[in-house]
Specification:
The complex is a heterodimer of chains A (122) and B (586).
Chain A: E1 2-6, H1 10-22, E2 26-30, H2 33-42, E3 47-51, H3 59-69, E4 74-79, H4 84-92, E5 97-100, H5 105-117
Parallel strand pairs in A: 1-2, 1-3, 3-4, 4-5
Chain B: H1 17-20, H2 34-104, H3 107-111, H4 113-126, E1 130-137, E2 142-146, H5 160-168, E3 170-176, E4 184-192, E5 198-206, H6 207-214, E6 224-229, E7 260-265, E8 271-278, E9 284-291, H7 292-386, H8 394-421, E10 428-431, H9 433-450, E11 454-459, E12 466-469, H10 470-487, E13 493-501, E14 505-512, H11 519-522, H12 541-551, E15 555-561, E16 565-573
Parallel strand pairs in B: 11-13
Antiparallel strand pairs in B: 1-2, 1-5, 3-4, 4-5, 6-9, 7-8, 8-9, 10-12, 13-14, 14-16, 15-16
Helix pairs in contact in B: 2-7, 7-8, 9-10, 10-12
The chains are: A alpha/beta (122), B alpha+beta (586).
Chain lengths: 122, 586
């Protein structure tokens, strides 16, 4: 399964992508929104894991753009803040999961599988 | 915030709160000195209202008094002159009758007993009041006599009246008893004979007739009308001063031919209005006495009515002034108090908000590096698990697991801080009350652990979820449990019970075995700025708690016994009533 992982924290992205790869996922990493859009146009991803707050394109805006490129893409959001308004906005936008940092790898894997199992476009 | 202020009127129970208030309950100086304002306003308004009333009343009284003093002498004056005319006419008639008899008859005719009898009958018919009629010669011997007494041949030469009439020609005597021992007066006229010498015609009038003539016509007049002679002997019976021929108790008034009215001190210190006049050509002085009190009785009534009215209206004015001023000053004082409470609450709220923002910021900032630590440690663990060299190394795996456990603990703390950070509006969620209590205990658990305080949570089975604001409920519980922790000693206990209450509410009971709250303090613990923690407390915690519970449509109660412990009961609706849901519902 191919996953797109986007977070502005370099150290987090490298460690998390490696752990996911150990668990059998193919992970494309991006540290900015534009990198992520590039990658999305090159390969097809089933699930994207996005940070809510990033410099430049925010998580939600990035989600809109990515959904245009790959309409079947499912989204999981990571946040260090847990802000209620973000949570509601994600809920309305049909985000599959909303997870507070730091994450437990097992629960993240579970969420990825749940998201991937959802019907496309939901 | 408005909910907190509902307690303010509670201060009223303690009399006039502004009276003692040199400081507001918040410890601030009041905007105004309310006591001075009260005193000044009451005095000012009372003076403005009462002075004109008192001045008008006193001026009226003075005017009435003056008018009445003038008018009290007038009726006496009139009575004196009326009676004077009556008496003068009475005496003139009789004097004229006798003079006519003297001039119309010669001595011989008058000396004739039969002729005299005839004349007496005619006179008595024409004028009345004559008791007898006699003719006396110049030696004083009574020559002829008609009347009820046997006075024929009596000699009057040594009597005073005889000498007087001999000299004056016509004479009206005092009242005296004389031979007959009955009070009477004499009118006598002298006639000179042509051949020299003279004779006297003398008529006697009963003194009782004089009394009856001068008695006032109107029965209800309280005037005492009587006649005295110049020697101060009563000539007629007086209702107050005595009988005929008694001595008059007051000074004989000075001679005057026109009526004079004076106010004098009578016997027993009573004030009298005294009128008198000398009756011309007689020894008589007509006196009219009237008790000043009688004249003034109407005046006293009027004065009493006026003064009663003044007293009553003054009392009403004072009561109204005091009531209105008290009401207004109390209102101002309460507004001032509310102002300081609002200011304090705003400060508190903004402080809490800043603390919340700070906590959220810190939590957020920590979360990111924490996530990196977690992922790096997780990666190490993953690599160790894959590697044949390290997979069996329990020590290294144990170290990594410790790091991961520490990250987990930190993340629990940061998540809680974020959860408490921002809850301004009522945002409704379906909440498991037991879980919420546990979350709060998670925050306070450490302190309880250090102090070995046992906290038990007993939740009823099948407790429903409640629709309420999580953050505000957390704050309510946090405040109450915090208070309980402050109240209990080390190794004390706090019991928390959750149960359904009357099918539409959930009760949360937080009971401690701490120091308890006295009955007088129990009434006040929800008031802003009331604290028993001295410097430690702001006095706002329970006031805010009360406000929050009200905002959530619930109730809060306290039962406490000094030395035994305190039990707070919070009742929350399972479904919020429409008007308490609020702005936060989406």
């Amino acid at each position: 399964m191919r996953i797109l992982l986007v977070d502005d924290e370099h150290e987090l992205v490298t460690a998390l992508s490696e752990r996911l790869e150990i668990r059998g996922f193919v992970v494309d990493c991006a540290e900015t929104g534009n990198d992520a859009l590039d990658m999305a146009s090159k390969n097809e991803h089933e699930v994207a894991i996005l940070d809510v707050k990033m410099p430049g394109l925010s998580g939600l805006m990035l989600m809109e753009r990515l959904a245009k490129i790959q309409p079947g893409m499912r989204f999981i959001f990571l946040t260090g803040h847990g802000c209620e308004s973000d949570y509601r906005a994600c809920e309305q936008a049909g985000v599959c999961s909303y997870i507070m940092k730091p994450v437990k790898i097992d629960s993240l894997v579970e969420r990825i599988r749940e998201a991937a199992a959802r019907e496309k476009g939901s | 915030m408005s909910q907190h202020m509902r307690h303010v009127p509670g201060h009223r129970r303690f009399g006039l709160p502004f009276w003692q208030a040199s400081t507001l309950p918040s410890g601030e100086k009041p905007l105004f000195n309310y006591r001075r304002i009260w005193v000044k306003t009451v005095l000012g308004m009372s003076i403005v209202a009462l002075v004109p009333l008192v001045v008008m009343t006193l001026f009226n009284l003075y005017q009435y008094d003056k008018t009445l003093a003038a008018e009290s002498t007038f009726p006496v004056m009139r009575l004196v002159s009326d009676t004077q005319r009556t008496i003068e006419a009475f005496l003139e008639e009789r004097k004229a009758a006798i003079e006519f008899v003297v001039h119309d008859n010669d001595f011989a005719a008058l000396s004739d007993q039969g002729r005299l009898q005839e004349l007496f009958v005619r006179m008595d018919v024409a004028f009345g009041g004559f008791v007898d009629l006699g003719v006396i010669d110049e030696t004083g011997k009574q020559l002829a006599y008609v009347g009820p007494y046997d006075l024929h041949g009596k000699n009057y030469a040594d009597q005073d009246w005889f000498e007087q009439v001999s000299q004056r020609g016509i004479y009206v005597s005092d009242v005296f008893r004389g031979y007959r021992d009955v009070p009477h007066m004499v009118i006598a006229a002298k006639h000179d004979k042509e051949q020299g010498g003279f004779y006297i015609v003398r008529a006697t009038i009963d003194a009782a007739l004089l009394t009856s003539r001068i008695n006032p016509q109107d029965g209800n007049s309280r005037s005492d009308v009587f006649i005295i002679n110049q020697g101060g002997i009563l000539q007629t019976t007086s209702t107050r001063s005595g009988k005929v021929l008694d001595r008059y108790s007051l000074h004989v008034p000075s001679p005057t031919s026109v009526p004079v009215v004076k106010r004098v001190e009578g016997p027993g210190g009573r004030s009298l209005i005294l009128g008198h006049v000398y009756i011309a050509d007689t020894p008589f002085i007509l006196v009219v006495a009237k008790q000043h009190r009688d004249i003034l009785s109407g005046w006293w009534k009027l004065r009493a009515t006026l003064l009663t009215f003044l007293a009553l209206s003054s009392a009403v004015i004072l009561i109204v002034v005091v009531a209105v001023v008290t009401f207004l000053v109390e209102g101002a004082y309460e507004a001032d108090m509310r102002r300081t409470i609002t200011v304090h609450q705003m400060e508190h709220t903004s402080k809490m908000a800043s603390v919340g923002r700070l906590a959220a910021g810190v939590a957020h900032e920590i979360n990111n590096p924490l996530a990196i630590i977690g992922e790096k440690a997780g990666l190490i663990k993953d690599l160790f698990t894959i590697s044949k060299t390290y997979a069996a190394d329990e020590r290294l795996m144990g170290l990594v697991d410790s790091i991961l456990a520490a990250v987990e603990r930190c993340s629990t703390i940061t998540h809680r801080l974020l959860g408490f950070a921002k809850h301004v509006d009522v945002t409704l969620d379906d909440i498991d009350p037991a879980a919420t209590v546990k979350e709060v205990l998670g925050l306070l658990g450490k302190e309880a652990e250090y102090r070995e305080i046992r906290i038990s949570l007993d939740a009823e089975d099948g407790l429903p979820k409640i629709t309420t604001d999580r953050g505000q409920l957390q704050q309510v519980l946090l405040n109450i449990i915090n208070n309980a922790l402050d109240a209990v000693k080390d190794r004390g206990r706090i019991d928390i019970g959750l149960a359904s209450y009357r099918h539409d509410r959930v009760s949360i009971v937080i009971a401690d075995d701490g120091c308890g709250i006295g009955p007088s303090d129990q009434k006040r613990i929800f008031e802003p700025f009331f604290t028993t923690k001295k410097e430690k407390g702001t006095g706002l915690g329970l006031s805010i708690t009360y406000g929050l519970v009200q905002k959530l449509g619930g109730e809060i109660r306290v039962d406490s016994e000094l030395g035994k412990g305190t039990r707070f009961t919070v009742l929350l609706p399972i479904r919020p009533a429409r008007n308490t849901t609020g702005q936060g519902e989406r």
